[in-house]
Amino acid sequence: RTTRHARVGLIATAKMENADSLGDLSAVMGDDYSHGYNDDDGDPNVIPKTPPAPTVKDPSQIKQTSITVRFPKQKQFLTKLVIQCLPIKSIPGYGTDKAPKPFQNFSTTESVGGRIVQPKDPKDATKAKFEGLQPDTYYIFRLVATNPAGTGRGRASKPFITLPKTPPAPEFAYASSKSVCIKYAAQGPNVKKLGIEMALWCADPFGPSNKKKGLLTDAGKNVGTRTTGLVRNLHPGKPYVFRLVVTNAAGTSVGPTSKPIKTLPKPPGAPQEDAKKRTDNQICLRFEQQGDAVSKLTLQYAVLNGKKTFDDLKKNGGKEITLPEPQTLSEYLVRNLKPDKKYMFRLIAHNQSGRSTGAMAGPIKTITYTPDMLDKSGWLLEMPSGATKKEVGRRMSSRKKSASARHWYTIDGKLLTWANGINGEELGYLHLAKVEKVNLEGKILELKTKDKKLKDMVLVGESDDPNVTSEQLMESWKNAIMQAITGERHAESADGGDVNPGRTASIKVEPVDELPDDFGGDLDAPEEEEDEFEAEEGFGEAFGEESDEDEEGGGFGDMAEEDEEEEEDAGGFGGADEDEDEDEEEEASGFD
Question: CA 80 to CA 148: how far, in whole Å?
Fold first, then answer.
Protein backbone atom coordinates (compact mmCIF):
# COMPACT_ATOMS: atom_id res chain seq x y z
CA ARG A 1 0.00 0.00 0.00
CA THR A 2 2.76 2.42 0.93
CA THR A 3 4.48 1.81 -2.41
CA ARG A 4 1.26 2.37 -4.39
CA HIS A 5 0.50 5.64 -2.56
CA ALA A 6 4.05 6.84 -3.23
CA ARG A 7 3.65 6.10 -6.93
CA VAL A 8 0.41 8.14 -7.16
CA GLY A 9 2.10 11.07 -5.43
CA LEU A 10 4.90 11.09 -7.90
CA ILE A 11 2.43 11.24 -10.82
CA ALA A 12 0.58 14.14 -9.21
CA THR A 13 3.82 15.96 -8.59
CA ALA A 14 4.84 15.49 -12.20
CA LYS A 15 1.53 16.90 -13.44
CA MET A 16 1.96 20.00 -11.28
CA GLU A 17 5.50 20.55 -12.60
CA ASN A 18 4.34 20.23 -16.24
CA ALA A 19 1.54 22.72 -15.65
CA ASP A 20 3.93 25.22 -14.10
CA SER A 21 6.40 24.88 -17.00
CA LEU A 22 3.71 25.57 -19.67
CA GLY A 23 2.44 28.56 -17.78
CA ASP A 24 5.92 30.04 -17.49
CA LEU A 25 6.55 29.61 -21.26
CA SER A 26 3.25 31.30 -22.15
CA ALA A 27 4.10 34.20 -19.88
CA VAL A 28 7.47 34.61 -21.55
CA MET A 29 6.29 34.38 -25.20
CA GLY A 30 2.97 36.20 -24.83
CA ASP A 31 0.54 36.22 -27.77
CA ASP A 32 3.16 34.99 -30.21
CA TYR A 33 3.37 31.73 -28.22
CA SER A 34 -0.30 30.99 -28.66
CA HIS A 35 -0.27 32.21 -32.33
CA GLY A 36 2.27 29.57 -33.12
CA TYR A 37 -0.37 27.06 -32.41
CA ASN A 38 -3.01 28.84 -34.50
CA ASP A 39 -2.71 27.49 -37.99
CA ASP A 40 -4.58 30.49 -39.40
CA ASP A 41 -1.88 32.91 -38.29
CA GLY A 42 1.09 30.69 -39.03
CA ASP A 43 3.62 28.96 -36.85
CA PRO A 44 7.00 30.50 -35.94
CA ASN A 45 8.47 27.08 -36.19
CA VAL A 46 7.12 26.71 -39.75
CA ILE A 47 7.97 28.75 -42.88
CA PRO A 48 5.50 31.75 -43.12
CA LYS A 49 2.36 31.37 -45.13
CA THR A 50 2.28 32.85 -48.64
CA PRO A 51 1.42 36.57 -48.25
CA PRO A 52 -1.34 38.06 -50.46
CA ALA A 53 -0.49 40.22 -53.51
CA PRO A 54 -0.14 43.98 -52.89
CA THR A 55 -2.63 46.27 -54.61
CA VAL A 56 -3.35 49.95 -55.43
CA LYS A 57 -6.83 51.01 -54.42
CA ASP A 58 -6.37 54.79 -54.71
CA PRO A 59 -5.34 56.03 -58.18
CA SER A 60 -3.93 59.18 -56.61
CA GLN A 61 -1.14 57.01 -55.18
CA ILE A 62 0.26 56.54 -58.67
CA LYS A 63 2.59 59.29 -59.92
CA GLN A 64 4.98 59.63 -62.83
CA THR A 65 7.92 58.23 -60.82
CA SER A 66 6.31 56.56 -57.78
CA ILE A 67 3.66 54.02 -56.78
CA THR A 68 2.35 53.33 -53.28
CA VAL A 69 1.01 49.77 -52.78
CA ARG A 70 -1.04 48.44 -49.83
CA PHE A 71 -1.40 45.06 -48.13
CA PRO A 72 -2.93 43.67 -44.88
CA LYS A 73 -1.04 43.40 -41.58
CA GLN A 74 0.92 40.17 -41.16
CA LYS A 75 -0.39 38.43 -37.96
CA GLN A 76 2.19 35.71 -38.09
CA PHE A 77 5.48 36.07 -36.25
CA LEU A 78 7.98 37.60 -38.65
CA THR A 79 11.54 38.76 -38.32
CA LYS A 80 11.59 40.60 -41.68
CA LEU A 81 9.15 41.80 -44.34
CA VAL A 82 10.30 42.91 -47.81
CA ILE A 83 8.15 44.27 -50.65
CA GLN A 84 9.64 43.76 -54.12
CA CYS A 85 8.96 45.76 -57.32
CA LEU A 86 9.89 44.71 -60.85
CA PRO A 87 9.25 46.34 -64.28
CA ILE A 88 7.55 43.85 -66.55
CA LYS A 89 9.71 44.92 -69.49
CA SER A 90 12.56 43.02 -67.81
CA ILE A 91 10.53 39.78 -67.93
CA PRO A 92 10.94 38.19 -71.38
CA GLY A 93 7.61 37.26 -72.93
CA TYR A 94 5.57 38.55 -70.01
CA GLY A 95 1.94 37.55 -70.35
CA THR A 96 2.66 34.55 -72.59
CA ASP A 97 3.01 30.85 -71.83
CA LYS A 98 6.72 30.96 -72.52
CA ALA A 99 7.43 33.64 -69.95
CA PRO A 100 9.34 32.63 -66.79
CA LYS A 101 7.85 33.07 -63.33
CA PRO A 102 7.51 36.80 -62.68
CA PHE A 103 10.14 37.18 -59.96
CA GLN A 104 12.33 34.27 -60.98
CA ASN A 105 15.20 36.53 -62.07
CA PHE A 106 14.53 39.37 -59.63
CA SER A 107 17.52 41.66 -59.10
CA THR A 108 18.09 45.24 -58.09
CA THR A 109 20.75 45.74 -60.71
CA GLU A 110 20.30 48.55 -63.21
CA SER A 111 19.80 46.15 -66.09
CA VAL A 112 16.89 44.37 -64.38
CA GLY A 113 15.52 47.40 -62.56
CA GLY A 114 14.14 45.65 -59.46
CA ARG A 115 13.49 47.64 -56.27
CA ILE A 116 12.71 46.76 -52.64
CA VAL A 117 11.12 48.43 -49.62
CA GLN A 118 11.65 46.96 -46.10
CA PRO A 119 9.39 48.35 -43.34
CA LYS A 120 10.98 48.79 -39.91
CA ASP A 121 8.05 47.04 -38.23
CA PRO A 122 7.12 43.92 -40.22
CA LYS A 123 4.14 43.26 -37.94
CA ASP A 124 2.26 46.58 -38.40
CA ALA A 125 3.33 47.56 -41.93
CA THR A 126 0.44 47.98 -44.41
CA LYS A 127 1.92 50.02 -47.31
CA ALA A 128 5.12 50.60 -49.22
CA LYS A 129 6.06 53.54 -51.48
CA PHE A 130 8.39 52.93 -54.41
CA GLU A 131 10.13 56.03 -55.79
CA GLY A 132 12.50 56.66 -58.66
CA LEU A 133 10.38 54.68 -61.10
CA GLN A 134 10.18 55.35 -64.82
CA PRO A 135 7.12 57.22 -66.23
CA ASP A 136 4.64 55.33 -68.39
CA THR A 137 6.05 51.94 -67.27
CA TYR A 138 4.25 48.84 -65.96
CA TYR A 139 5.44 47.32 -62.63
CA ILE A 140 4.45 44.23 -60.57
CA PHE A 141 4.84 43.80 -56.78
CA ARG A 142 5.00 41.00 -54.16
CA LEU A 143 5.65 40.49 -50.41
CA VAL A 144 8.52 38.36 -49.03
CA ALA A 145 7.99 37.32 -45.34
CA THR A 146 10.74 35.78 -43.12
CA ASN A 147 10.60 34.08 -39.69
CA PRO A 148 13.06 31.81 -37.83
CA ALA A 149 11.87 28.82 -39.84
CA GLY A 150 12.53 30.39 -43.26
CA THR A 151 11.12 32.69 -45.97
CA GLY A 152 7.73 32.73 -47.67
CA ARG A 153 7.37 34.51 -51.06
CA GLY A 154 4.00 36.07 -51.83
CA ARG A 155 1.94 36.10 -54.98
CA ALA A 156 2.75 38.66 -57.71
CA SER A 157 0.35 41.56 -58.12
CA LYS A 158 -1.26 42.58 -61.39
CA PRO A 159 0.70 45.19 -63.38
CA PHE A 160 0.36 48.85 -62.39
CA ILE A 161 1.54 51.65 -64.73
CA THR A 162 3.03 54.98 -63.75
CA LEU A 163 1.58 58.22 -65.20
CA PRO A 164 2.69 59.26 -68.71
CA LYS A 165 5.88 61.21 -69.10
CA THR A 166 5.29 64.95 -69.38
CA PRO A 167 5.17 65.59 -73.13
CA PRO A 168 7.35 68.38 -74.54
CA ALA A 169 5.88 71.59 -75.87
CA PRO A 170 4.65 71.20 -79.47
CA GLU A 171 6.61 72.87 -82.25
CA PHE A 172 5.52 74.61 -85.45
CA ALA A 173 5.25 72.42 -88.56
CA TYR A 174 3.32 74.57 -91.05
CA ALA A 175 0.27 76.82 -91.20
CA SER A 176 -2.42 78.19 -93.46
CA SER A 177 -4.62 81.22 -92.90
CA LYS A 178 -7.15 79.09 -90.97
CA SER A 179 -5.12 76.19 -89.55
CA VAL A 180 -1.89 75.30 -87.77
CA CYS A 181 -0.06 71.98 -87.90
CA ILE A 182 2.13 71.18 -84.88
CA LYS A 183 4.70 68.42 -84.48
CA TYR A 184 5.88 66.44 -81.45
CA ALA A 185 7.51 63.15 -80.48
CA ALA A 186 5.48 59.92 -80.51
CA GLN A 187 4.11 59.24 -77.01
CA GLY A 188 4.44 55.46 -77.05
CA PRO A 189 2.18 52.37 -77.11
CA ASN A 190 0.74 52.82 -73.60
CA VAL A 191 -1.02 56.07 -74.54
CA LYS A 192 -4.79 55.59 -74.81
CA LYS A 193 -5.77 59.16 -75.64
CA LEU A 194 -3.91 62.19 -76.94
CA GLY A 195 -5.25 65.72 -76.69
CA ILE A 196 -4.15 69.04 -78.11
CA GLU A 197 -5.20 71.98 -76.01
CA MET A 198 -5.31 75.27 -77.91
CA ALA A 199 -5.79 78.86 -76.79
CA LEU A 200 -5.55 82.34 -78.24
CA TRP A 201 -2.29 83.74 -76.92
CA CYS A 202 -2.54 86.13 -73.96
CA ALA A 203 -0.98 86.63 -70.52
CA ASP A 204 -2.67 83.50 -69.08
CA PRO A 205 -3.82 81.54 -72.14
CA PHE A 206 -5.11 78.48 -70.29
CA GLY A 207 -6.45 80.33 -67.27
CA PRO A 208 -10.15 80.62 -66.44
CA SER A 209 -10.34 84.21 -67.71
CA ASN A 210 -9.51 83.25 -71.30
CA LYS A 211 -12.65 81.98 -73.02
CA LYS A 212 -10.96 81.48 -76.40
CA LYS A 213 -9.53 78.02 -75.84
CA GLY A 214 -10.45 74.42 -76.46
CA LEU A 215 -9.33 70.77 -76.36
CA LEU A 216 -9.18 68.41 -79.33
CA THR A 217 -8.67 64.69 -78.62
CA ASP A 218 -7.79 61.54 -80.54
CA ALA A 219 -8.35 58.06 -79.06
CA GLY A 220 -7.56 56.05 -82.20
CA LYS A 221 -5.59 52.83 -82.10
CA ASN A 222 -2.50 54.50 -83.58
CA VAL A 223 -2.57 57.52 -81.33
CA GLY A 224 0.71 56.52 -79.63
CA THR A 225 2.65 56.66 -82.90
CA ARG A 226 1.41 59.91 -84.39
CA THR A 227 3.76 62.88 -84.43
CA THR A 228 1.67 65.71 -85.90
CA GLY A 229 -1.68 67.33 -85.31
CA LEU A 230 -3.65 69.73 -87.51
CA VAL A 231 -5.90 72.25 -85.77
CA ARG A 232 -8.47 73.85 -88.08
CA ASN A 233 -11.03 76.67 -88.01
CA LEU A 234 -8.66 79.30 -86.63
CA HIS A 235 -8.60 82.99 -87.49
CA PRO A 236 -6.10 84.40 -90.03
CA GLY A 237 -3.02 86.16 -88.71
CA LYS A 238 -3.73 85.38 -85.02
CA PRO A 239 -1.20 83.96 -82.49
CA TYR A 240 -2.13 80.72 -80.77
CA VAL A 241 -0.43 78.51 -78.16
CA PHE A 242 -0.70 74.73 -77.81
CA ARG A 243 0.06 71.99 -75.30
CA LEU A 244 -0.30 68.19 -75.26
CA VAL A 245 -2.55 66.24 -72.89
CA VAL A 246 -1.48 62.57 -72.71
CA THR A 247 -3.55 59.82 -71.01
CA ASN A 248 -2.75 56.19 -70.18
CA ALA A 249 -4.36 53.61 -67.85
CA ALA A 250 -3.06 55.43 -64.76
CA GLY A 251 -4.18 58.96 -65.62
CA THR A 252 -3.22 62.11 -67.49
CA SER A 253 -0.10 64.28 -67.86
CA VAL A 254 -0.21 67.82 -69.27
CA GLY A 255 2.76 69.25 -71.14
CA PRO A 256 4.17 72.78 -71.15
CA THR A 257 2.79 75.55 -73.35
CA SER A 258 4.31 76.10 -76.78
CA LYS A 259 5.65 79.38 -78.07
CA PRO A 260 3.02 81.55 -79.82
CA ILE A 261 2.36 80.30 -83.35
CA LYS A 262 0.58 82.51 -85.87
CA THR A 263 -1.75 81.44 -88.62
CA LEU A 264 -0.87 82.82 -92.02
CA PRO A 265 -2.27 86.23 -92.91
CA LYS A 266 -5.51 86.37 -94.84
CA PRO A 267 -4.73 86.28 -98.56
CA PRO A 268 -4.82 89.91 -99.77
CA GLY A 269 -7.54 90.90 -102.18
CA ALA A 270 -6.79 91.84 -105.76
CA PRO A 271 -5.35 95.38 -106.00
CA GLN A 272 -7.48 98.01 -107.70
CA GLU A 273 -6.02 100.44 -110.25
CA ASP A 274 -6.20 104.20 -109.96
CA ALA A 275 -6.66 104.71 -113.71
CA LYS A 276 -6.10 108.47 -113.50
CA LYS A 277 -2.42 107.85 -112.75
CA ARG A 278 -1.75 105.32 -115.53
CA THR A 279 0.93 106.32 -118.05
CA ASP A 280 3.12 104.51 -120.55
CA ASN A 281 5.54 103.45 -117.81
CA GLN A 282 3.66 103.41 -114.51
CA ILE A 283 0.49 102.03 -112.92
CA CYS A 284 -0.94 103.05 -109.55
CA LEU A 285 -2.53 100.35 -107.35
CA ARG A 286 -4.77 100.67 -104.30
CA PHE A 287 -5.50 97.95 -101.73
CA GLU A 288 -6.71 97.38 -98.19
CA GLN A 289 -4.38 97.89 -95.23
CA GLN A 290 -3.10 94.53 -93.96
CA GLY A 291 -2.81 95.44 -90.26
CA ASP A 292 -0.84 93.65 -87.53
CA ALA A 293 -1.36 90.23 -89.15
CA VAL A 294 1.61 90.87 -91.48
CA SER A 295 5.26 91.56 -90.84
CA LYS A 296 6.12 92.01 -94.52
CA LEU A 297 4.16 92.84 -97.68
CA THR A 298 5.45 92.28 -101.21
CA LEU A 299 4.03 93.07 -104.65
CA GLN A 300 4.64 90.82 -107.64
CA TYR A 301 4.02 91.90 -111.21
CA ALA A 302 4.78 90.46 -114.65
CA VAL A 303 3.72 90.77 -118.27
CA LEU A 304 0.75 88.53 -119.01
CA ASN A 305 1.90 85.09 -120.17
CA GLY A 306 -1.04 82.79 -119.54
CA LYS A 307 -0.58 80.21 -116.80
CA LYS A 308 3.14 80.91 -116.64
CA THR A 309 2.80 84.60 -115.82
CA PHE A 310 4.27 84.33 -112.30
CA ASP A 311 6.46 81.25 -112.86
CA ASP A 312 9.49 83.34 -113.78
CA LEU A 313 9.05 87.01 -112.94
CA LYS A 314 12.31 88.16 -114.49
CA LYS A 315 11.72 86.24 -117.71
CA ASN A 316 8.23 87.72 -118.00
CA GLY A 317 9.39 91.28 -117.52
CA GLY A 318 8.41 91.60 -113.84
CA LYS A 319 9.81 91.53 -110.34
CA GLU A 320 8.86 91.30 -106.66
CA ILE A 321 8.94 94.51 -104.64
CA THR A 322 9.06 94.71 -100.84
CA LEU A 323 6.62 97.45 -99.90
CA PRO A 324 7.28 99.97 -97.11
CA GLU A 325 5.09 100.20 -93.98
CA PRO A 326 3.39 96.84 -94.63
CA GLN A 327 0.75 97.22 -91.90
CA THR A 328 -0.61 100.59 -93.03
CA LEU A 329 0.24 100.99 -96.72
CA SER A 330 -2.81 101.21 -99.00
CA GLU A 331 -1.43 102.62 -102.30
CA TYR A 332 1.66 102.04 -104.39
CA LEU A 333 2.87 103.45 -107.71
CA VAL A 334 4.64 100.85 -109.84
CA ARG A 335 7.24 102.58 -112.00
CA ASN A 336 9.62 101.70 -114.83
CA LEU A 337 7.12 99.59 -116.74
CA LYS A 338 7.23 99.10 -120.50
CA PRO A 339 4.75 100.88 -122.76
CA ASP A 340 1.90 99.04 -124.45
CA LYS A 341 2.23 95.90 -122.25
CA LYS A 342 -0.42 93.98 -120.33
CA TYR A 343 0.65 93.50 -116.72
CA MET A 344 -0.68 91.25 -113.95
CA PHE A 345 -0.31 92.13 -110.26
CA ARG A 346 -0.74 90.36 -106.90
CA LEU A 347 0.11 91.04 -103.25
CA ILE A 348 1.82 88.54 -100.94
CA ALA A 349 1.41 88.90 -97.14
CA HIS A 350 4.14 87.48 -94.88
CA ASN A 351 4.45 86.72 -91.16
CA GLN A 352 6.57 84.42 -89.00
CA SER A 353 4.66 81.33 -90.16
CA GLY A 354 4.95 81.88 -93.90
CA ARG A 355 3.25 83.74 -96.74
CA SER A 356 -0.23 84.06 -98.22
CA THR A 357 -0.54 84.82 -101.92
CA GLY A 358 -3.35 87.17 -102.80
CA ALA A 359 -5.75 87.35 -105.73
CA MET A 360 -4.49 88.57 -109.09
CA ALA A 361 -5.39 91.88 -110.69
CA GLY A 362 -5.26 92.56 -114.40
CA PRO A 363 -4.39 92.51 -117.09
CA ILE A 364 -3.74 96.26 -116.96
CA LYS A 365 -2.19 97.67 -120.13
CA THR A 366 0.27 100.53 -120.02
CA ILE A 367 -0.42 103.36 -122.45
CA THR A 368 1.25 103.22 -125.85
CA TYR A 369 4.35 105.40 -125.94
CA THR A 370 3.31 108.57 -127.76
CA PRO A 371 5.92 111.34 -127.51
CA ASP A 372 4.99 114.88 -128.50
CA MET A 373 6.73 115.60 -131.77
CA LEU A 374 6.43 118.75 -133.88
CA ASP A 375 2.89 120.20 -133.97
CA LYS A 376 1.00 116.92 -133.46
CA SER A 377 1.94 113.22 -133.39
CA GLY A 378 0.45 109.87 -132.56
CA TRP A 379 -0.54 106.38 -133.67
CA LEU A 380 -3.47 106.15 -136.10
CA LEU A 381 -4.92 103.53 -138.41
CA GLU A 382 -5.66 104.18 -142.03
CA MET A 383 -8.80 102.53 -143.36
CA PRO A 384 -9.79 102.07 -147.01
CA SER A 385 -11.19 105.24 -148.50
CA GLY A 386 -14.96 105.43 -148.19
CA ALA A 387 -15.16 102.94 -145.32
CA THR A 388 -18.32 103.41 -143.29
CA LYS A 389 -18.53 103.45 -139.51
CA LYS A 390 -20.07 99.98 -139.59
CA GLU A 391 -17.29 98.61 -141.78
CA VAL A 392 -14.64 100.16 -139.56
CA GLY A 393 -16.21 98.62 -136.47
CA ARG A 394 -16.42 95.22 -138.15
CA ARG A 395 -12.78 95.29 -139.18
CA MET A 396 -11.56 96.38 -135.76
CA SER A 397 -13.60 93.77 -133.89
CA SER A 398 -12.61 90.94 -136.25
CA ARG A 399 -10.30 88.30 -134.79
CA LYS A 400 -8.63 87.99 -138.19
CA LYS A 401 -5.81 90.27 -139.16
CA SER A 402 -7.00 93.39 -140.90
CA ALA A 403 -5.32 95.25 -143.74
CA SER A 404 -5.67 98.47 -141.80
CA ALA A 405 -2.22 100.03 -141.50
CA ARG A 406 -1.13 101.39 -138.11
CA HIS A 407 1.40 104.17 -138.60
CA TRP A 408 3.03 107.02 -136.74
CA TYR A 409 1.47 110.27 -137.95
CA THR A 410 3.03 113.70 -137.55
CA ILE A 411 1.85 117.22 -138.41
CA ASP A 412 4.65 119.67 -139.16
CA GLY A 413 3.23 122.99 -140.27
CA LYS A 414 0.92 122.14 -143.17
CA LEU A 415 2.53 118.75 -143.84
CA LEU A 416 1.01 115.46 -142.62
CA THR A 417 3.47 112.55 -142.78
CA TRP A 418 3.30 108.95 -141.67
CA ALA A 419 6.04 106.44 -140.86
CA ASN A 420 6.37 102.84 -139.78
CA GLY A 421 7.51 103.89 -136.30
CA ILE A 422 8.22 106.81 -134.04
CA ASN A 423 11.63 107.25 -135.56
CA GLY A 424 10.96 104.94 -138.46
CA GLU A 425 11.07 105.21 -142.22
CA GLU A 426 8.68 107.74 -143.74
CA LEU A 427 6.02 106.00 -145.80
CA GLY A 428 3.92 108.86 -147.14
CA TYR A 429 2.86 112.48 -146.86
CA LEU A 430 -0.02 114.82 -147.59
CA HIS A 431 0.07 118.59 -147.87
CA LEU A 432 -2.96 119.72 -145.93
CA ALA A 433 -3.56 122.49 -148.45
CA LYS A 434 -4.95 119.75 -150.68
CA VAL A 435 -7.68 118.95 -148.10
CA GLU A 436 -11.09 120.29 -148.95
CA LYS A 437 -13.22 118.80 -146.17
CA VAL A 438 -12.55 117.33 -142.70
CA ASN A 439 -15.31 115.06 -141.45
CA LEU A 440 -15.29 113.55 -137.91
CA GLU A 441 -17.79 110.88 -136.96
CA GLY A 442 -17.06 109.33 -133.54
CA LYS A 443 -13.48 108.13 -133.80
CA ILE A 444 -13.39 108.11 -137.63
CA LEU A 445 -11.70 111.12 -139.24
CA GLU A 446 -12.12 111.54 -143.02
CA LEU A 447 -9.95 113.88 -145.06
CA LYS A 448 -11.41 114.65 -148.51
CA THR A 449 -8.97 116.09 -151.04
CA LYS A 450 -9.71 118.60 -153.80
CA ASP A 451 -7.52 116.81 -156.28
CA LYS A 452 -9.19 113.82 -157.88
CA LYS A 453 -5.78 112.23 -158.43
CA LEU A 454 -5.26 112.01 -154.65
CA LYS A 455 -7.20 109.47 -152.66
CA ASP A 456 -9.24 110.52 -149.68
CA MET A 457 -7.94 109.40 -146.26
CA VAL A 458 -9.89 107.67 -143.49
CA LEU A 459 -8.03 107.71 -140.17
CA VAL A 460 -9.14 105.91 -137.01
CA GLY A 461 -7.79 106.42 -133.52
CA GLU A 462 -8.04 103.94 -130.65
CA SER A 463 -7.06 105.36 -127.26
CA ASP A 464 -5.59 103.02 -124.65
CA ASP A 465 -5.40 105.86 -122.12
CA PRO A 466 -8.22 105.32 -119.57
CA ASN A 467 -8.45 109.08 -119.15
CA VAL A 468 -8.92 109.87 -122.84
CA THR A 469 -11.60 108.30 -125.02
CA SER A 470 -11.02 107.44 -128.66
CA GLU A 471 -13.51 110.13 -129.62
CA GLN A 472 -11.59 112.74 -127.62
CA LEU A 473 -8.34 111.59 -129.22
CA MET A 474 -9.70 112.06 -132.74
CA GLU A 475 -11.26 115.41 -131.85
CA SER A 476 -7.77 116.60 -130.95
CA TRP A 477 -6.48 115.41 -134.33
CA LYS A 478 -9.29 117.19 -136.15
CA ASN A 479 -8.48 120.40 -134.26
CA ALA A 480 -4.77 120.07 -135.09
CA ILE A 481 -5.51 119.53 -138.80
CA MET A 482 -7.91 122.47 -138.90
CA GLN A 483 -5.36 124.69 -137.19
CA ALA A 484 -2.67 123.58 -139.64
CA ILE A 485 -4.92 124.40 -142.58
CA THR A 486 -6.48 127.66 -141.38
CA GLY A 487 -3.88 128.85 -138.94
CA GLU A 488 -6.61 129.25 -136.29
CA ARG A 489 -6.99 127.11 -133.16
CA HIS A 490 -10.16 125.01 -133.28
CA ALA A 491 -12.38 125.17 -130.18
CA GLU A 492 -12.73 122.17 -127.84
CA SER A 493 -15.39 121.32 -125.29
CA ALA A 494 -14.73 122.04 -121.63
CA ASP A 495 -14.35 118.35 -120.80
CA GLY A 496 -12.03 117.63 -123.72
CA GLY A 497 -14.79 116.04 -125.85
CA ASP A 498 -16.15 116.91 -129.25
CA VAL A 499 -17.77 120.30 -129.77
CA ASN A 500 -19.84 118.83 -132.54
CA PRO A 501 -19.04 115.15 -133.18
CA GLY A 502 -19.88 114.10 -136.68
CA ARG A 503 -19.38 117.64 -138.02
CA THR A 504 -17.99 118.24 -141.49
CA ALA A 505 -15.66 121.21 -141.92
CA SER A 506 -15.35 122.84 -145.34
CA ILE A 507 -12.18 124.82 -145.78
CA LYS A 508 -11.35 127.67 -148.09
CA VAL A 509 -7.69 127.52 -148.91
CA GLU A 510 -5.71 129.92 -151.06
CA PRO A 511 -3.76 128.26 -153.88
CA VAL A 512 -0.31 127.15 -152.84
CA ASP A 513 2.39 128.19 -155.25
CA GLU A 514 4.88 125.73 -156.67
CA LEU A 515 3.05 122.57 -155.55
CA PRO A 516 2.69 119.75 -158.10
CA ASP A 517 -0.82 118.60 -158.91
CA ASP A 518 -0.17 115.16 -157.41
CA PHE A 519 1.40 116.44 -154.18
CA GLY A 520 0.48 114.12 -151.33
CA GLY A 521 0.22 110.36 -151.03
CA ASP A 522 2.37 107.36 -150.25
CA LEU A 523 6.02 107.26 -151.18
CA ASP A 524 5.58 103.61 -152.07
CA ALA A 525 1.82 103.41 -152.39
CA PRO A 526 0.57 99.81 -152.64
CA GLU A 527 -2.46 98.93 -154.67
CA GLU A 528 -5.61 99.41 -152.64
CA GLU A 529 -7.58 96.26 -151.83
CA GLU A 530 -11.31 96.25 -151.45
CA ASP A 531 -11.64 92.88 -149.66
CA GLU A 532 -10.09 91.60 -146.43
CA PHE A 533 -6.55 92.84 -145.96
CA GLU A 534 -3.67 92.32 -143.60
CA ALA A 535 -2.83 94.70 -140.76
CA GLU A 536 0.65 95.64 -139.70
CA GLU A 537 2.09 93.82 -136.72
CA GLY A 538 0.71 95.14 -133.45
CA PHE A 539 -2.72 96.14 -134.77
CA GLY A 540 -4.65 93.52 -132.83
CA GLU A 541 -2.80 94.25 -129.64
CA ALA A 542 -3.53 97.97 -129.85
CA PHE A 543 -7.22 97.54 -130.57
CA GLY A 544 -8.21 94.63 -128.43
CA GLU A 545 -7.56 91.85 -130.97
CA GLU A 546 -5.12 89.02 -130.58
CA SER A 547 -1.70 89.23 -132.16
CA ASP A 548 0.64 86.37 -132.98
CA GLU A 549 2.64 87.24 -129.93
CA ASP A 550 -0.46 86.90 -127.74
CA GLU A 551 -1.33 83.54 -129.24
CA GLU A 552 2.16 82.16 -128.80
CA GLY A 553 2.52 83.47 -125.27
CA GLY A 554 -0.86 82.32 -124.06
CA GLY A 555 -2.29 85.82 -123.76
CA PHE A 556 -5.36 86.96 -121.91
CA GLY A 557 -7.61 86.24 -124.89
CA ASP A 558 -6.48 82.63 -124.82
CA MET A 559 -7.02 82.35 -121.13
CA ALA A 560 -10.57 83.65 -121.38
CA GLU A 561 -11.46 80.82 -123.72
CA GLU A 562 -9.82 77.99 -121.79
CA ASP A 563 -12.12 75.55 -120.14
CA GLU A 564 -12.75 75.64 -116.43
CA GLU A 565 -10.53 72.68 -115.72
CA GLU A 566 -7.45 74.38 -117.17
CA GLU A 567 -8.29 77.58 -115.32
CA GLU A 568 -8.44 75.70 -112.04
CA ASP A 569 -5.07 74.10 -112.75
CA ALA A 570 -3.60 77.55 -113.16
CA GLY A 571 -4.90 78.72 -109.83
CA GLY A 572 -7.28 81.12 -111.57
CA PHE A 573 -7.19 84.88 -111.67
CA GLY A 574 -9.81 85.30 -108.95
CA GLY A 575 -7.76 84.63 -105.81
CA ALA A 576 -5.65 82.13 -103.86
CA ASP A 577 -6.12 78.43 -104.51
CA GLU A 578 -8.10 77.33 -101.49
CA ASP A 579 -8.69 73.80 -102.80
CA GLU A 580 -4.98 73.11 -102.67
CA ASP A 581 -4.84 74.31 -99.07
CA GLU A 582 -7.71 72.04 -98.08
CA ASP A 583 -6.09 69.02 -99.76
CA GLU A 584 -2.88 69.71 -97.91
CA GLU A 585 -4.72 69.91 -94.61
CA GLU A 586 -6.53 66.64 -95.26
CA GLU A 587 -3.24 64.88 -95.97
CA ALA A 588 -1.95 66.09 -92.61
CA SER A 589 -4.68 64.03 -90.90
CA GLY A 590 -5.57 66.61 -88.34
CA PHE A 591 -7.85 66.77 -85.36
CA ASP A 592 -11.45 67.54 -86.26
Answer: 10
